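@channel sequence for tomorrow's demo:
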Amino acid sequence: MLLAPEKGKKLYQQIHAFLQQHKLAPRLLQQSQDIQTQLALVAAGLGIALVPKSAQLICDKQRVTLLPLSGLYTQWKIGVIWNSNIKNKERDLFIKIITEKIDIK
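structure tokens (generated this afternoon):
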């Protein structure tokens, strides 16, 4: 099972890079429009899927097993975004903590 590229372009690219890195060429049976559909199809026994680790929060743990992967192409780069036109002391404190505690490149 695979998320349709137009529904998750970066995830789709990352999954393909992971598969290529490990010289894997699985047979694609089904593309879905969302992660929930992928999880339902897997729970129904119709295949397996590479999904974000956060899918563990919404999957039926009695019907699906999620195995975390590691290594190249298994991590997302994230950032912080905010509207600087809005005053917010808690946000500014959070940003200060992040910039002091985390190695920002």
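heads up for whoever presents: Residues 90 and 96 are 10 Å apart (CA to CA).
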